[in-house]
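Morning, I've got a small favour to ask if you have a moment. I owe you a coffee for this, so here goes:

…
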Amino acid sequence: MFLFLKALISACFIVLITFIAKKTSFLGGLIAMMPVNIVLSLLWLHFEKTDTTQLSNFVRAAIFGILPTGIFLVVVLSILNKSQKFEYSLLAGVFALLIFAVIQYKILKAI
């Protein structure tokens, strides 16, 4: 039951964000990049009695996800601005995100 509730609340946020984005792209994009997913994830982990060390590790990992996400957004935006198809933009963005995330992971693991 709790899994269903988590999925329903999370899905509602996504639907709300896309609804807002249809009305105003700027506000929709701004809300989408707010840490709604992280807040929800932290809440779900907390309600599942996750200890603070695991929560801390989760937040630390989320911080490291900021750079790959930024790369993804820059790649998608630059390709869309060149009037390319959405599918190409999204695919290139995901590819760039994965490449950068792997490189970042290997660098952090070596440190």
Observations:
- The first helix runs from residue 2 to 23.
- The helical segments are 2-23, 25-33, 36-47, 52-64, 66-81, 86-110.
- The CA atoms of residues 55 and 64 lie 15 Å apart.
- The radius of gyration is 17 Å.
